Amino acid sequence: MTHQPVAQVRELLKSIETGDAAPVAYINPNQYIQHNLAVADGLAGFGVVLQQLPTGSARVNTVRAFQDGDYVFTHTDYNFFGPKIGFDIFRFEDGKIVEHWDNLQEKPTTANPSGHSMIDGATEIVDREKTASNKTLVRAFVEDVLVNGRMDTLGGYFAGDAYVQHNPQVPDGLSGLGGALKAMAEQGITMKYDHIHKVLGEGNFVLVVSEGSVGGKPTAFYDLFRVEKGVLAEHWDTIETIPARAEWKNDNGKF
């Protein structure tokens, strides 16, 4: 497996900050399917967004980057029309980028209850030989607990209370997750996962792309998990409301 596509994606994302036009050549000019619903389809749509950025305003720090077959997925600290944390997924075909998905969330100004940001934490990729089994584990967790609400299975996915949490609202530990879910329920805030669209991984890191709702609003969930010794050890996420159909700049859908 070559990691050349990972380097290309890093360069492409960084070019949003630097203005370097060369990395755009990594995109297939005749086929670039865009799933960011605020951006028009094709290479031209990407160019329009870059032209709209105030000069010198963009900052791009890609903290994590992974490859799973034809897909490269990244975790980035952005200042892109304001501070955001984002996951991006790029699909390669015949050596060129032909499709892009992302999920962006406004960056909090303070740490979460356990002192973590949305982007800090472990970055080293290990256990590449366990990629398939780790993807199976994480998919099972999301299906059991988040999609089907089988809270009785929750403990089996964790090593006691040892769980590092980067969600802005949730403290560390299995107890923190349980407490946050209970508090949301008491406040009448419903968060529902309906369907998993993608599970991508490299080694000990697995990204799950899901569709559901928060407070009744259609929502995209991107959840990145780090697996250690067969259990879930760390979690990052972004949650983005899916805009109404009339507001879409392309017809490709969020997923």
TrEMBL record:
It comes from Denitromonas halophila. This is SnoaL-like domain-containing protein. Transmembrane segments: none annotated. InterPro entries: NTF2-like_dom_sf, SnoaL-like. Pfam families: SnoaL_2. Residues 138-235 form the SnoaL-like domain.
